[in-house]
Design a protein that fits this description.
This protein is mainly alpha-helical. Helix content is about 75%, strand content about 0%. It is elongated, with a radius of gyration of 19 Å. The relative contact order is 0.12.
Length: about 190
């Protein structure tokens, strides 16, 4: 049976989300406008409102990010720190605009900060709870991991801090993996 062609509404939504990701990443939440996003997507601003209801609804859709964190029990012999750092680098490189938007808006506004907190709480916390020796310490350990991966992302991909940009992917994994592993598995200090 032949594949159905994508519906026009799907293509419109995709264009809106791509344009919004670029605008939020480059201008932040406050300065990005529905009118500019619609112009970038090649549609009327009313279509943005029709699909997403508001600028906040559109922003929420842009930041509907699944971190796709690998299940630690399926890693086998692979080091959990190495696997997580490598995973986050891949995720960042594949979703650069949306994640840049998330970070930029997260550091400048409450809406973005809350969304980042939700994403990491809902998706990273369960990993920490499964791995760390005392699941009650999972929130602190997940917070420490988030500080490492978000800090590297901010330095490398948003601020483009040259020493962080110059590091190869392998070097980043080699530097950060032992720290992430320690955050997850070491006894409480």
């Amino acid at each position: 049976m032949p594949e159905k062609p994508p519906r026009r509404s799907d293509a419109t939504r995709t264009a809106i989300l791509a344009a919004a990701s670029r605008r939020f990443a480059s201008e932040g939440y406050a300065r990005a406008t529905i009118r500019a996003i619609a112009k970038d997507a090649g549609i009327d601003p009313s279509m943005v409102m029709r699909y997403y209801g508001s600028k906040e609804g559109l922003f929420g859709a842009v930041l509907d990010i699944d971190l796709r964190i690998p299940d630690p029990q399926r890693l086998g012999d692979r080091d959990v720190g190495e696997a997580l750092v490598d995973h986050f680098l891949t995720l960042w490189e594949e979703n650069h605009e949306a994640l840049t938007a998330m970070l930029r808006v997260g550091v400048t506004g409450e809406t973005g900060a809350e969304r980042i907190q939700e994403i990491f709480r809902d998706q990273l916390m369960p990993v920490a709870q499964r791995i760390c020796p005392d699941p009650q310490q999972a929130p602190a350990r997940a917070g420490l991991i988030a500080s490492q991966v978000l800090g590297m992302a901010l330095a490398r991909y948003v601020l483009k801090f040259q020493p962080a940009v110059d590091l190869s992917r392998q070097e980043i994994v080699a530097w950060l993996a032992p720290t992430v592993r320690r955050y997850l598995t070491a006894p409480h200090p």
